[in-house]
Amino acid sequence: MANGQNAADWGLYRDAGVSHLLSVSGLHVTMFAWLAGAAAGWVWRRSARLCLWLPAPRAAMWIGVVAAGLYALFSGWGVPSQRTVGLLAILALLRQTGARWPWPMSLCAAAAGVCAADPWALTQAGFWLSFCAVALLMAADHRADPGWRGALRNAWHTQWVVTLGLAPLTLLLFQQLSIVGLVANAFAIPLVSYVITPLAMLGAVCPPLWTLGAWCVALMNALLEALRVLPLAVWHLPWPTAWAQAVGLVGGAALAMPWPWRLRLGGLALCVPMFWPVIERPAPGHLELWVPDVGQGGATILRTQGHTMVFDAGPSWGPGSDAGQRVLLPLLYGLGERRLDVLMISHADQDHVGGAASLLAAMPVERRLGAVPGGEGCRRGQRWTWDGVRFEVLWPIVEGEAGGAGGAGSTGEVSQKRKEARRNAGSCVLRVEAAGRRVLLTGDIEAAQEARLVREDGEEGLRSEVLVVPHHGSRTSSTVAFVRAVEPRVAAVQSGYLNRFGHPKPDIVARYLAADVLLLNTVDCGAWRWRSDRRSPPIDGCERATRRRYWLRLPPGVLPVRPMPASLPKLPDAPASTADPDPDPDPEETVPRSLAP
């Protein structure tokens, strides 16, 4: 059933705090094991010979464990399923041998088994959520009262313990917390566990039951949607510091324990630094630039003391999956952003506009520029100042030029390649100046537009410390005259690993290195952060340098940048003409019609 949910449904379940129910959770595996064991025990008792060989309760227990393992394998063998099967096997073995272990030992043994089978399980959020939830429930040790009232109170207590105890861990892993999750799970847990899941299983024997299950899912979705639209239904928080994370996790566990309320309130106090972190922003007059790794595409985030702007939104990778949803929104939420002052899309190529819809749906945007639905077009001369930081659009020049700005095309059929070239020619170019240090964002402009900018602005107007390389390092751009005019200290390339276009092209890389420019590629560097109020080496802003993992470890002396060769001749300038200077074209996917300006 979970595989049949679309991206919108998964977003609903995530915001409502019930996404754990739409996967094969430990509760589902346990329920299946209990049903299989009960059926096996009923059959076993009908045979005296079988009962003499092995008592029916023991046979039912082991058949249930085997059935749980087969069900978990059939459903994908996820971490929660592995944990459940491991615990069931350990408990069955203990009962068979008459031994008694404290619950932490059983849980640690199951965790060790999961890690031995898959060491990478430690990197999955499901591992920590699954084992921590079971640890909280075991530590709480709540005894259920008899009767249906006792069952309801026990269900409410279980949900309360898990919600409070896992809240800090959920914030740490996802930077969001569903405020309505407690209410949503109160009806979603029994509905999914005791109605929807059994109907999904029995539907394999009686297909009409799947229709009934679909009606139940539609009812649940309607109730969850009603909760999601409530004010503050989902709480997004920025990344807390390491010490705030540590004390917050301890505080969450203390809140869930069956201790006196004074101690629980102490746990709540420990959570305050995590729930109310200090948001770091640039000082007045300074700029923070983020160049995230979005694969083969373009996207940057610019922040001043009180304003935030996104320039390009990265590519779309498929239905319900794009850089806006997977990269930019988590980064913005982690930085503490809740709105955008400006969303500027340089041009309508899919690798620059693909994530715009996700940004527009998730955040209020005050102003839209460029190829954004409902926005105003870019034009030279647009300028504004935020907190002492100056922003100015240098391109396109809105006039009747025929070649430089990619004006009106020839009549008749226009080839796809020419359409793409015209879109690139109309890319927005943005210059940002903070404390005397400049950043130049160029979209996918090509040689003709670079030549026009050199003529219009000269070296004084284009010179910038940081340049986001035009067109991902294609041969259509980065002419020697342009690189010489900008004279960047750092050039950042956004390209995909082993991308089919071969970006950045080797001769373009050589051109920047010959100009003594430090070339950073998001393939090697990961996300790159630059601040105008800091003079640290640019390499220090690379995510792979600051948060290095063992699988990203490089040989000694190797940095995630293009090394400067000992001797490299300067290359001749590319011709600044309207003809395509690249013998190997770089075709771009067309933008979806729903996002076309």
**In percent, how much strand structure appears in the residues?**
5-15%
CA-atom Rg in angstroms? 29 Å
Helix content: 40-55%
Tally of individual helices: 21
Q: Would you report the number of β strands? A: 17
Strand order of the largest sheet: 10-11-12-13-14-15-16
Question: Roughly how many Å apart are the termini?
Answer: 37 Å
**Biggest sheet architecture:** 7 strands, mixed
What best-fitting shape do the alpha-carbon axes yield?
elongated
User: Could you report the average pLDDT, rounded to the nearest whole number?
Assistant: 83
* Unreliable spans: 401-414, 562-597
> Structural class of the helix and strand makeup?
alpha/beta
Description:
- The protein has 597 residues and is an alpha/beta fold.
- The chain is 47% helix and 13% strand.
- It is built from 21 helices and 17 strands.
- A seven-stranded mixed beta sheet has the order 10-11-12-13-14-15-16. Strands 9-8-5-4-3-17 form a six-stranded mixed beta sheet. A two-stranded antiparallel ribbon has the order 1-2.
- β14 (466-468), α18 (480-486) and β15 (490-493) form a beta-alpha-beta unit.
- Mean pLDDT is 83; it is low at 401-414 and 562-597.
What topology does this entry show?
Blueprint: H1 7-16, H2 26-44, H3 48-53, H4 56-74, H5 79-97, H6 103-117, H7 125-140, H8 147-174, E1 176-178, H9 181-202, H10 208-228, E2 234-236, H11 242-256, H12 261-275, E3 288-291, E4 299-303, E5 308-313, E6 316-318, E7 321-322, H13 323-334, E8 340-345, H14 350-353, H15 356-362, E9 365-370, E10 383-386, E11 389-395, H16 416-425, E12 429-434, E13 437-441, H17 447-462, E14 466-468, H18 480-486, E15 490-493, H19 506-514, E16 518-521, H20 522-525, E17 528-531, H21 543-546
Parallel strand pairs: 5-8, 8-9, 13-14, 14-15, 15-16
Antiparallel strand pairs: 1-2, 3-4, 3-17, 4-5, 6-7, 10-11, 11-12, 12-13
Helix pairs in contact: 1-10, 2-4, 2-5, 4-5, 5-6, 6-7, 7-8, 8-9, 8-11, 9-10, 11-12, 13-15, 17-18
